[in-house]
Design a protein that fits this description.
The strands form two sheets. Strands 3-4-2-1-5-6-7-8 form an eight-stranded mixed sheet. A six-stranded parallel sheet has the order 11-10-9-12-13-14, with helices on both faces. The model has no long low-confidence stretch (mean pLDDT 92). Helices cover 41% and strands 15% of the residues. The protein has 386 residues and is α/β, with parallel strands linked by helices. Helix 7 packs parallel to helix 8. The two termini are 40 Å apart. The chain folds into two domains: 187 residues, Rossmann fold (3-Layer(aba) Sandwich); 166 residues, 3-Layer(aba) Sandwich (Rossmann fold). This is Glycosyltransferase involved in cell wall biosynthesis. It comes from Rudaeicoccus suwonensis. Keywords: Glycosyltransferase, Transferase. InterPro entries: Glyco_trans_4-like_N.
Length: 386
C-alpha cells in the first residue's frame, strides 16, 4: 500500500508522542513492503534528507504561532496531497486537523484521524481555542473514515459523547535493560540517585505541582526536570522561580540525546508523571519500559496504563508522601519498576501497534468506511464534564 502520515512535526522524532509514533510505525510499515510518505515541518537550520528509514519525507512550512502551527502545516500538506498525492490510505494525527479533511476527498483518499487526548482541557488554550477543539472533535467523528483512540478512556469519551466507534490502538515502547551509566555520570547524576520529570511545562502536565510536592517532602535525592515550554509563559516562570529557590532541583531543559534520556529513565529512583488529559502517554511507556518506578497523577488514562503497579497522587502533599516512602523503600520501588517493565513487554510493543495500523490502512483501502455513519452531535446524557 501507499500510506501517508500527516499532521505531525515529522521524522526523525525529536519532539513528542506523535512524532515517535510516526517514526516507529512508519519504519515497520516500510519493512513490510509499504510505501510510506511523511509530511514534515520545516525548521530553521534543519537538515532535510529525502528519506528516513525508508520513509519518503516531504517538507512544508508552517506559521510560527502556537494556535496556527499545526493547522497551517496540515493545510499545506493536504493541499500538496490533493495535487500530487496517490495514497491508498492516510493517517491524520490530531483532531484539530479535522476541519481540513474535505481536502482528502479530492483524491478520494480514505483517512483515519488519530484524535489524541482531550485537547479542549489543556490549559494553554483560551475559550476560543477550547471551543475550536470541541468543534473539531465533532467534525472528526463526522468526516473521518475511521477514528483512532490510544486509550480506553478516549474510546469511552467518543462513545459517550458522540455514540461513535473508535479503533483502539495504543502506543508502544522499547524494553530498556542493562543500560550503561556513562552519559548519566557525565551529567553529574548517579544510578538511583535522583527523581525524574520529563514533560513540556504546561499546566495539564502538572510539572508545577510536582515541584511543589518535592519541596514539601523530606526527599534527600535531587529532582531533575527535563523539558521546557515552546512558548514562554507565567507557568514556566513559576517553575523556574521555585527551582532557583532550592539547589536540589535541576533544570536540564530539552534533552534530545535519546541514549542519555534512556539512561535517565532507566536509573531514576522514581519517574514522576503528571500528564492528565492525554490517552496513553509515550513518555510514561518509555519510563515503564526502562523499569522506572512511576508516581503518576491520578486520572483514568494513567491508571489504565499502569494498572496495579502504579502509585498515584492528586495533590502536592500526596506526592510528597509518595516521595518520602520511595526513598525509605528503594528495593520495593525497584520491584515495582520491574513489574511495569513486564507490563510493557506484554501490552505495549511497537511491532503489535504497527500491525494494527497496517490492518486498519488495509481495511480502509478496501473501501470499509464509517464516514457518515455518525452525526457528530453530542449526546445530552454524556457523563463527561464539559
Amino acid at each position: 500500500m501507499r500510506i501517508s502520515l500527516v499532521g505531525t512535526r515529522g521524522v526523525p522524532a525529536r519532539y513528542g508522542g506523535f512524532e515517535t509514533a510516526v517514526d516507529e510505525i512508519g519504519t515497520r510499515l516500510v519493512a513490510q513492503g509499504h510505501e510510506v510518505t511523511v509530511y514534515c515541518r520545516t525548521e530553521p537550520g534543519q537538515e532535510r534528507p529525502d528519506e528516513h528509514n525508508g520513509m519518503k519525507l516531504i517538507y512544508l512550512p508552517k506559521l510560527r504561532r502556537r494556535s496556527l502551527e499545526t493547522l497551517s502545516h496540515t493545510a499545506l500538506s493536504l493541499a500538496h496531497h490533493a495535487r500530487h498525492g496517490n495514497a491508498d490510505a492516510m493517517i491524520v494525527f490530531n483532531s484539530a486537523n479535522s476541519v481540513l479533511l474535505p481536502l482528502t476527498w479530492l483524491r478520494r483518499t480514505p483517512v483515519a484521524t488519530h484524535v489524541d487526548g482531550l485537547e479542549w482541557r489543556r490549559g494553554k488554550w483560551g475559550p476560543t481555542g477550547q471551543k475550536y477543539y470541541r468543534v473539531a472533535e465533532a467534525l472528526a467523528v463526522r468526516w473521518s473514515d475511521r477514528l483512532i483512540a490510544d486509550a480506553d478512556g478516549i474510546s469511552d469519551y467518543y462513545r459517550e459523547e458522540f455514540a461513535a466507534d473508535t479503533e483502539r490502538i495504543a502506543y508502544g515502547a522499547p524494553i530498556l535493560s542493562d543500560l550503561d551509566t556513562d552519559l548519566l555520570e557525565a551529567e553529574g547524576l548517579t544510578k538511583g540517585g535522583y527523581h525524574l520529570v520529563v514533560a513540556r511545562f504546561e499546566k495539564e502536565n502538572n510539572v508545577l505541582p510536582a515541584v511543589q510536592g518535592y519541596l514539601r517532602s523530606d526527599a534527600k535525592l535531587p529532582l531533575v526536570l527535563v523539558g521546557s515550554a515552546p512558548y514562554a509563559s507565567d507557568y514556566t516562570a513559576e517553575i523556574e522561580r521555585l527551582a532557583a529557590s532550592d539547589p536540589r532541583i535541576r533544570l536540564m531543559g530539552g534533552v534530545w540525546n535519546q541514549d542519555l534520556l534512556d539512561q535517565m529513565y532507566a536509573h531514576a529512583a522514581t519517574y514522576i508523571h503528571g500528564h492528565s488529559v492525554g490517552g496513553t502517554n509515550p513518555s510514561l511507556l518509555r519510563a515503564m519500559g526502562a523499569a522506572s518506578p512511576v508516581l503518576a497523577y491520578d486520572v483514568c488514562f494513567n491508571r489504565e496504563v499502569l494498572g496495579a503497579d502504579g502509585q498515584f497522587f492528586d495533590s502536592p502533599d500526596a506526592l510528597a508522601a509518595l516521595l518520602n516512602a520511595a526513598e525509605q523503600s528503594p528495593q520495593s520501588m525497584q520491584d515495582l519498576g520491574t513489574e511495569l517493565q513486564s507490563r510493557v513487554g506484554t501490552m505495549y510493543t511497537w511491532d503489535v501497534v504497527a500491525k494494527l495500523y497496517e490492518a486498519l490502512c488495509d481495511d480502509m483501502a478496501r473501501g470499509n468506511s464509517q464516514r457518515g455513519r455518525f452525526s457528530g452531535r453530542r449526546r445530552r446524557e454524556s457523563t463527561w464534564r464539559h
